[in-house]
Design goal:
It comes from Rhodobacter calidifons. By secondary structure, the chain is mainly β. It contains four helices and 25 strands. Helices cover 11% and strands 38% of the residues. β23 and β24 form a beta hairpin.
Length: 271
Amino acid sequence: MDRRLTPFSGRVAHVSLSGQVNAPLTEGLQAQVIVPVANLCESPGGARDRQLLLGESVTVIDRDAGHVFVISAKDGYCGWMKESDLGQGPAPTHWVASPGTHLYSEPQVQAPERMALSLGSRLAVVGSWGAWANTPHGFVPLRHLRALGDWASDPVAVAESLLGTPYLWGGNSRFGLDCSGLVQLALHSCGLPCPGDSDMQMSLGRQLAPNEPMKRGDLIFWKGHVAMVVDRDRVIHANGHTMSVSYEGLKDAVARISAGGGGLVQTRQRL
């Protein structure tokens, strides 16, 4: 079983694994991310696999010395995170639709900011004050939010809004992205399902025939890497070459990755 998608901490398992593991079972407890960005790790305090954003939901399965083993509601990804990064709150009503925004202590631009938020963060709007949304965490410009269900329409345009974002292994936010994090954030912003890692994303769509031309929004995969097609000649991807989200010529990317030992293109997918 893929540990990333298996809700089993090694000691306690989710009830969905009944009959598959010899361990105590639990339905778990629901919780919500209460910090701007939380790391989801392979072990308590271990290496980062992915990240979760403010307002995202998890199911807590196990606890260990200030860490909790969780299932992410958005994609089923499992891992350990700091228990202090989780709490309770009202169900989110809106999502951050701009590349980034700030939470302010008061509804005015001169007010001290409380925290910076990434595209994709989720908030419960409990009221408004002019051009400001009032949330349990503070005030946010209304123009930076959209109601849940009011999604963007073009994943490539979402990815393009993140140009220049620094590369970060396992990153899922405007503060740092890796290749699969960029694809997932772009697709989720359009209300489309998407798993967390590039190997999982290989089965997202229809595999293109060898001579079938690529078009905007198609995904191109190498071993351990994914890029999104912008047009006939360019891709956009979070990459270690520029250490950022950047454009690259499609032919240039294929040649560079091959020359650098990354191998040949493994598959091309159309959503």
